[in-house]
Amino acid sequence: MMKACLIFLFCVTVVNSYAQKKTIDSLRQIINQNKNDKAQVNALVNLGMTVSNSTDAISYVKDGLLLSKKIDYKKGEADCNLVLADLVAQVTESIYYGLNALEIYEKLKDNTGTASAHLVLQWNYREAEDFTNALLHEFEGEKIAEQNNVKGVFDFPHHRLAPLFLAETAQTYILKNEPDSAIIYAQKSIQQNELFDGTSWEFPIYLLATIQQIKGDYVHSLENYRLALRLSKIQTEDTQDSLQIYSGMSTLFKSTIQLDSSIYYAQLVNKSWSPGISEAKNLLEAVNNLYEVYKLKGKQDSTLKYLELNYAQVFLIQKNKKKYTKQHSALN
What we know:
Blueprint: H1 2-32, H2 38-50, H3 54-70, H4 74-87, H5 91-108, H6 111-127, H7 131-148, H8 161-175, H9 179-192, E1 195-196, E2 199-200, H10 203-214, H11 218-234, H12 239-255, H13 259-272, H14 280-296, H15 300-331
Antiparallel strand pairs: 1-2
Helix pairs in contact: 1-2, 2-3, 2-4, 3-4, 4-5, 4-6, 5-6, 6-7, 6-8, 7-8, 8-9, 8-10, 9-10, 10-11, 10-12, 11-12, 12-13, 12-14, 13-14, 14-15
């Protein structure tokens, strides 16, 4: 049985790789025709979203941005800005592209593009701990998505964006340490009942578990963390969500003095985390838990190791936030 499963997974991987290569080849064929038209811009955008190398992806989309301006293709210009906002690593640069995309989409009265731009912007403002602007884009994006039944194209593809905005709002209120507000939006998102692979979407359930943990309701929190984890294993894009669930479970077990369990889940995050698949806050939470648990267990060497790693992560995050604050004030 195991051998059959492995063969099946290998075949799926081969088929997906072949399909992706075929898509890339088709897009490059359009680009190589050098017609300098809308089709070439669209191909550059889609190629940027398809190739795995981020440097190449950014280069393709920037070429598309230059061409879209040259031929006065506003929809293509907005799409290029939006995809660049998703691709670039620096928060300030991402916000710059996101605001450009938002301005153009609004002028075009493109509800899907406008909601998508709000989605990218809220995430980046929250990453910089600018919660006021994050909430502003979450509220506005949710209103547009709900009124127009907007579904995701670049992010959250084929799914309604309204439940995502509600969940993102809950996430922002969690980070603001306002659990009473957070639980309202998490429950609203759950009530929207967005389905992935035939099952309830796990992200708002994870958020509900986190809020329950903050409020000291450890029994229901653990139940919902476990439910969210089961759902994430069924759903196709589960890497990031699994890691944030693990970091949350680590914190819960630390709070209930189940130290070995806390270490186990924190180490899962510590070993698997990378910037491309999970938010910095998940690694920081896990490393901080390792530091505090090893300190409680009296293991000085391990405590020092994770204290140093914790400080390194805090320094890196704060450094990026300082860049954001300085550069963003200059943009305004």
